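Still learning. Show one?

>
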Amino acid sequence: MGLISTFVKWIRRESSGKAEPTAEQRQPRTGYTWLTSEHGALCISSVFRCVKLLSESVANLPMQYMRQRNGIFVEDISNRLHYLLTVQPNPAQSSFDFWKQAVQNVLLDGNAYIVPVYYMGDINVLVLCGRGTVGHDIAQDVYTVCDYVNGINGVFHENEIIHLKGFTIDGKHGLSVLSYARLTTTIASTGDRETLNRFETGGNVRGLIGKSTSAVQGFGEYQTEQLQKLAADTSIRIQEQPIVAVPGDVDFKQFSLSSTDMQFLESRKFGVREICRFFGVHPSFVFDDTSNNYKSAEMANVAFLSNTLNPILRQIECELHRKLVPHSLCCKYKFQFNRFGLYACDLESKAKYQAQMLATGLYTVNELRRLENRPAIDGGDRAFISANLKGIDEPFTQTATMPEKTDDKTDGKEGEN
């Protein structure tokens, strides 16, 4: 049952955990942390919404540890991994917080590291390493963990740590989404600062004061000095009142652009759309002002599930299966997110779906009742199919013959005779 390979992993981890990392190994690869600080890209509403949506969508799905039995995979609730993956991976986190934080690390840092801690040959807890606490030596393919908060320190081999990667070029180390969206996030953050500045100053304009085409009286040889003084006084008066009378024969030329000239609103919409493209999220999910109806919302939801969310789920499933299931049992066990909760719909669509599943024999009545948390009923374990369907190799038989149509008028005349 793979106990030997598990015992070897446990012995290797015990020995590697005692090794003291060198000063060079204590320098982890932190990536683009300046973009993901509390005052960085997450302050942009569209970035925050995309990260929150993706991480919570994954965490909202229950992870199942499946075991093959009688030719089908059923959930193995007696295994320790079932409790770790669905309830509490470690004493500090629930399963929801665990998977939410793991996906956030992938999106913001490009990498998430999970260390399985063994006790007596079995997995006891799953520890999600903190951000910036893991250094990955790509040449030797080893990981140096210096996570003193979670109590994980040492050097781990590639098969001893669960490594979830974001977009990767070399296949070894993931890159943050924000590292590619740096230009877009910079434009968006600059737009936010400019909006705040315009509200704080009341939209005051900026310009230059200079002499007009005619001579400026009263300045003489001190013309430049007096103009600077006039400009300073005018600037103060502009902040106090919207319209200021400039004394003397002096021109005021505006050099700051208005919000209309800058197409300020259009540039902010551009930032939201660009960020959504990087994260693979439809703009309607970040509450963008787009034309939306029931059909477009449904298609956006389908595209989000198939193109954005499902690859993340599949990556987590494959990495868990690769690291936690021995080679000899690879076809007997598997990890799987229960995607049934993704396809939430209105009650009418749900009733049509259940009726079709029942008519095709894919579900029995009791199986559908269990999905709705209803008790089983007698005779509900029998599968049904629609009476309109039959095997293509079965001979056609006419079940009923229509009676011949008679002429009522003729019969009536014969009766009279």
Observations:
- The radius of gyration is 34 Å.
- DSSP finds twelve helices and 13 strands in the chain.
- Residues 14-39 have pLDDT under 50 and may be disordered.
